[in-house]
Amino acid sequence: MSDDLIAELGQIAEVRLDEPMSRHTTFGVGGPADMYVTVKTEDELRQAFAVARRHGVPVYILGSGSNTLVGDKGIRGLVIDNQYAQLEGPVQNGVGLKVRAASGLSFSTLARRLASSGYGGVEWACGIPGTLGGAVVSNAGAYGRSLADVLVGARLTDEKGDIREMKPDDFALGYRQSSTEVLRDAAVLSVDIRVVEGDPEALKARIKEFDQQRKDAQPPGQNCGSVFKNPEGKSAWQYVDEVGLRGHRIGNARFSEKHTNFIENMGGATANDVRALINLAQERIRERVGVDMEREVAFVGEFE
């Protein structure tokens, strides 16, 4: 870290050094980030990203901190806490309506705000805590739907601060994945989402149903959401359950008794505790069932 870099970033937003990532992830674990800034506008996001890359410093853009396991040694370089959450529209898109959502807006907030205003099409996303920027990276989804079903386009910025307009096909969206090539050395600024007109009360009632389903199925407390992607033809939780890991604990982390595709921080868990549980499940399922379980949770930073 150079004083020049810190000074340049400081002109954009407050710079925190050695910021504990455990404060910013839904898991509640993670070591310190070398540098940490919070941005609230598109210009701040674009400038912070470009400044860091111009200095040759790696950048990690943090959304809601869900589906993320930060290593106990923390993150080298700059973490940009993306709180740019503007919502524009709906406007006509030639064949329908679209909204433009800033990359720091959570998918859940988008779904709920649209429903209250009488616009549907994304109410299934009411339980996705991750941001729209993260949704592009992972093609976030729920209840058999995903971002790919409603994405009209996206705007990215590169390490020079230039803006690129992208089409859905550019991202090669698949099940919980997108093109790493397109997103390399780039940051998502905003996404355009297809919406439809609907009855606000009916949409809010549908969201209430989704909320109850989630409450009935998923554990409360500190967790990252789903740990593994669902293999074809079977739910991930069934495999974890079949190999006897329901409620299994390492350190202060355990597979949930309520939903075995969730790992809970029981209080004071470390990233190593969580990673050890994930590795154990992958090894045991591979040995006993012959299935390779792919993580949905991203490993970020350095581990012990």
Structure description:
The chain has 304 residues and is of the alpha+beta class. Helices cover 28% and strands 27% of the residues. The chain is built from eight helices and 17 strands. The strands form five sheets. Strands 6, 7, 8, 11, 12 and 13 form a six-stranded antiparallel β-sheet that branches. A four-stranded mixed β-sheet has the order 1-2-5-3. The longest helix has 19 residues, at 271-289. It is globular and about 50 Å long. The two termini are 22 Å apart.
Summary tags:
304 residues; alpha+beta; six-stranded antiparallel beta sheet; 8 helices; globular
SS strand fraction = 25-35%
- How far is the first residue's CA from the last residue's CA? 22 Å
Largest beta-sheet details: 6 strands, antiparallel
> What overall form do the CA principal axes indicate?
globular
Structural class: alpha+beta
Rg for CA atoms: 20 Å
Poorly predicted segments: none
Q: Give a count of the beta strands, DSSP E runs of length 2 or more.
A: 17
Mean pLDDT equals: 94
Task: List the total number of helices.
Answer: 8
Provide the succession of SSEs: HEEHEEEEEHEHEEEEHEHHEEEHE
Fraction in helix: 25-40%
